[in-house]
Amino acid sequence: MAGGKPEGAMATTTEEQEHIIIIEHVHLPVRGLSLHVAQAGKGELGTVVFLHGFPEIWYSWRHQMLAVAAAGYRAVAPDWRGYGLSDQPPEPETASFDDLIEDLLAILDALAVPKAFLVAKDFGPMIAYDFALRHPNRTQGVMSLGAPFVSSSLAFNTLLEGFYMLGWAQPGRAEADFGRYDVKRVVRTIYILFSRSEIPIAKEDQEIMDLADLSTPLPKWFTEEDLDVYSSLYDKSGFRYPLQMPYRSLHKRKPIEDPKFQVPVFVVMGEKDYVFKFPGVESIMKDGTMEKFAPDLKITYIPEGGHFVQEQFPDHVNDLLLGLLKDHPVAA
């Protein structure tokens, strides 16, 4: 076992693969920390870097890693600092998006990757977008699952006080809520809530963990084995840094003046992703706002897709990703 799962896994995309793809695990010295990176494939056609969100780790991309590796690409999926098998930073409360952007650049350098396609979800697209704007010479393109590019922060003041992001932004509140249960119960509850189409909002006498209990079934596409992998890795990392990044660091994200993408941007949005109901998101996706910043923009909707669309509909997302890579060849 390495990284919470068996070393070898059969590539099971739509067509049966004739060989076994091995997901390997390395730790890279990056800016004073040891960062865990999962990788697969030889990369004859280039490199694709997968950037996870919360409550995820590298394992969130297992289906996509096998698919792109089988297609001739090198798949690279790091655990962000403070997540999974990566080191905890010495002062989590100083977390910033700049740290993750610089970590990503250092990972590419350490792996001798001159240019990569970035695939990201949840808060990962914030890093992918900002990295592409700051380092277009190192970026072949960006594929974002569930998050459009916004040039300024979204306003959540129209949502109720029990909105999970507002609650988790308050130091100590999520810690007290999560602390009532073991890590597996916390991860299980968050996965269930984030898989729904409604925005997680606690009532006045509730906390977020109260919105589901052990009688609430896991999503059909998420197994107990998957839950065990996530739980084992959050057992190691805890939630101290993940609560800082992203929830208590959003205000630190530095806007980029006059942003204009020089690379293709592809946004895939599940129409049942609760994020689609965030104030302003649907209008940004549909009113042409993004085209002002991304001249080479493609937007695709998956009607039944939720927040974890890459795990819910892996073959569909893999087809979209491989089609994008074919249309925009990655320099090896």
Low-confidence stretches: 5-18
The CATH superfamily bears the name: Alpha/Beta hydrolase fold, catalytic domain
Secondary-structure element order, N to C: EEEEEHEHEHEHHHHHEHEHH
Tell me how many strands there are.
10
Strand arrangement within the widest β-sheet reads 3-4-6-5-7-8-9-10
CATH fold assignment: Rossmann fold
Structural class: alpha/beta
Radius of gyration, in Å, reads 19 Å
The main sheet comes to: 8 strands, mixed
| Content of β-strand | 15-25%
Kindly list the characteristics that best describe this protein.
two-stranded antiparallel ribbon, Rossmann fold, 31% helix, alpha/beta, 10 strands, 332 residues
